[in-house]
Amino acid sequence: MEKQTFIYLYSRGDRLGGHILQYISILIYAKYHNLYIHYDINELKYKSSIFVKNILSFVNNWNTRFNKPNTNKPYIQPYILDFTKKNDNLFFYSEDLCLIFTQVVYSIKSDLISYFKKYLFLQKNLKINKINRIAIHLRLDDVSTQEDYDGMVCGNYYKNIINESEIISGIVQKWETLYNTQRPLSKNKLELVISQAKEKYPNHEIVIVTSPGEKVDFDYPVISHSNPDDDLIYLCNSDVLILSRSTFSIIAAFMGNATEIWCPLWGHFVCMGLNTKYDKSKFNYFS
């Protein structure tokens, strides 16, 4: 069987958070398996983001250790990281993050965040400083009218599969029976988590970070930037984080220096290895 010598870095169909997570996952996989990372700059999305620029700077430096392999392949299976293993199943782009995350977790035997911070911590040009504040990210925008749900349902579904077996091709999320989607967290749920953080960090300021123009039902200052990079930098600079159920806020756990993180459970985060037997993060989980 052909041995894999490189991996493709490619874009997605969604927004900045999903792109950064996919790029980071591919970097981790390449680092662990010592693979050249091939990409076409003209086909990559969000390349003007300072976070994506940082990732590409790492990739370019990483690739200098290799003789560039022949990257002209007749068959590439989307979402299957080891493309030497043909998989006949087809997946929608909305399903692929769980698939990609779990392939990496099974390889490295660790949650993605802990591995990244130990071996790939990329803060070059990001100007990350730890500020004594509790930053709360609210995922509103296009899902602002949707109801919260119990993230333990889909979280436990994936946790049990990850803990009990290793499906080489990863895990495909089950949209039809389990929510596993980005949704706002209920005010009652957040108030309980905020009270826990305030008790532990009584002298920290508390700030909400969310999309511009959103109606926020909390009596805390609200930070919103038109450039999502600025919101991410703000989160990365915060000493304490309360994450949303989104692919955006979790980037601050990878790129920032938070002392403590409160993290909601849902399938996507569990497929990163969080709250599984591979978890080394020591986050505070809530559902």
Features:
6-stranded parallel sheet; Rossmann fold; globular; 2 domains; 287 residues; two-stranded parallel sheet; alpha/beta
Walk me through this protein's architecture.
The protein is α/β, with parallel strands linked by helices and 287 residues long. The protein folds into two domains: 6-119, no CATH class; 131-286, Rossmann fold, CATH 3.40.50. The chain is 35% helix and 11% strand. The chain has nine helices and eight strands. It has helices at 16-33, 50-63, 96-108, 112-119, 151-164, 187-200, 228-236, 251-255, 267-271; strands spanning 6-8, 36-38, 131-137, 205-209, 222-223, 238-242, 260-264, 284-286. The strands form two sheets. Strands 5-4-3-6-7-8 form a six-stranded parallel β-sheet, with helices on both faces. A two-stranded parallel sheet has the order 1-2. Helix 1 (16-33) packs parallel to helix 2 (50-63) and helix 1 packs parallel to helix 3 (96-108). The longest helix has 18 residues, at 16-33. The radius of gyration is 19 Å and the shape is globular. Mean pLDDT is 88; it is low at 88-94.
Summarize the structure.
By secondary structure, the protein is an alpha/beta fold. The protein contains nine helices and eight strands. It starts with 5 loop residues before the first strand and ends with a strand.
Average residue-wise pLDDT: 88
Beta strand count: 8
The proportion of residues in beta strands is: 5-15%
In what order do the strands lie side by side in the largest sheet? 5-4-3-6-7-8
Q: How many discrete domains?
A: 2
Per CATH, the class of the largest domain reads Alpha Beta
Order of helices and strands: EHEHHHEHHEEHEHEHE
In DSSP terms (H or I, runs of 4 or more residues), the helix count works out at 9
Multimeric status of the protein: single chain
Whole-angstrom Rg: 19 Å
Task: Give the biggest sheet.
Answer: 6 strands, parallel
Class from secondary-structure proportions: alpha/beta
**CATH fold-level assignment of the largest domain:** Rossmann fold
